[in-house]
């Protein structure tokens, strides 16, 4: 089993890459300063964004592999284990990175990082592929953060550093939106797969055995993280993946309500509801009348 390198502090990651620690909670990394190394398995207790300028083996996160190619931006959040494989010969790391401790963002607007900046929860095989212009913007943002790190720490330091990180992440959000657009054909394939999986789920016995389907279930079937899958569906259709599931559920329920030999409770259980009253409540919220009323009216 390969050795696991743990990075719980910024100084530990700086030491690993031959960098001085200018600030205990944040650092901008120039990987060309690091010594030559082979592929490593690493645990991060930090936020880390890496822009690589050299191919350095296959990156494994969980069950998925990612071709760690040049010109891509990879987002790592605390608790993730990254394994760089198939790089047994020593190589010189090249590129740049931003690493910061979760304590840095406490009390700042960046505290929303796990909700609004959902790409921190994407799998590594859903990295951001940059154009040359976008790459330069990333490097400019890193440069501004590094400039502030080289100043004496005062009462303004945390706010200015956090503001520059927030600016950088806002650019990344824009670049991901662009990536969703430029990969429209691939995204359409995911949409078609989602629709097919939805249909297959409700014609099988999965609702009775597994209950109502979740966004995470369909994301896993498409080999995507739940956040990336949800963002893709939302940007392509204007509706969330959960809304798509509920609409499919309501449409199937409307069809089955017209089967006179089935009770409302039976239909609810067939669709995956544990309690018929939950089905009735959801149906009324979407349709405006209860299942029984809908049956009588039509």
Give keywords.
single chain, 298 residues, alpha+beta, five-stranded antiparallel sheet, 12 helices
Query: How many beta-strand segments?
Result: 10
Number of helices: 12
- Which range does the strand content fall in? 15-25%
Radius of gyration: 24 Å
State the secondary-structure class: alpha+beta
Our measurement of the CA-to-CA distance between the termini, rounded to an integer number of angstroms, reads: 65 Å
- Characterize the biggest β-sheet: 5 strands, mixed
Order of helices and strands: EHEEEEEEEEHEHHHHHHHHHH
Strand order of the largest sheet: 1-3-8-5-6
* Averaged pLDDT: 85
Q: Can you give a write-up of this model?
A:
It is built from 12 helices and 10 strands. It has about 300 residues and is α+β, with helices and mostly antiparallel strands. The strands form 2 sheets. Strands 1-3-8-5-6 form a 5-stranded mixed beta sheet. The protein has a 5-stranded antiparallel beta sheet with strand order 2-9-4-7-10, with helices on both faces. A hairpin with a 2-residue loop joins strand 5 (about 60) and strand 6 (about 65).
């Amino acid at each position: 089993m390969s050795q696991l390198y743990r990075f719980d502090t910024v100084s530990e990651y700086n030491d690993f890459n031959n960098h001085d620690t200018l600030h205990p909670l944040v650092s901008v990394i120039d990987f060309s300063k690091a010594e030559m190394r082979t592929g490593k398995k690493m645990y991060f207790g930090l936020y880390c964004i890496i822009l690589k300028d050299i191919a350095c083996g296959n990156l494994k996160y969980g069950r998925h592999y990612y071709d760690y190619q040049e010109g891509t931006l990879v987002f790592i959040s605390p608790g993730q284990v990254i394994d760089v494989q198939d790089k047994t010969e020593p190589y010189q790391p090249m590129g740049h990175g931003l690493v910061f401790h979760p304590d840095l963002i406490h009390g700042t607007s960046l505290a929303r990082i796990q909700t609004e900046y959902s790409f921190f929860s994407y799998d590594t095989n859903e990295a951001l592929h940059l154009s040359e212009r976008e790459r330069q913007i990333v490097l400019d943002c890193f440069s501004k953060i590094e400039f502030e790190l080289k100043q004496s720490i005062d009462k303004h330091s945390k706010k200015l550093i956090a503001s520059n990180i927030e600016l950088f992440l806002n650019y990344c959000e824009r670049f991901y939106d662009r990536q969703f657009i430029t990969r429209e054909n691939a995204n359409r394939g995911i949409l078609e797969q989602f629709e097919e999986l939805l249909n297959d789920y409700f014609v099988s016995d999965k609702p009775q055995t597994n209950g109502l389907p979740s966004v995470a279930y369909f994301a896993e079937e498409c080999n995507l993280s739940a956040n990336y899958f949800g963002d893709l569906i939302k940007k392509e259709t204007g509706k969330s993946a959960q809304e798509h599931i509920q609409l499919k559920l309501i449409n199937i329920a409307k069809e089955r309500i017209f089967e006179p030999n089935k009770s409302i409770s039976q239909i609810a259980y067939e669709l995956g509801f544990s309690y018929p009253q939950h089905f009735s409540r959801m149906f009324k919220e979407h349709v405006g009348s209860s299942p029984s009323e809908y049956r009588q009216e039509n």
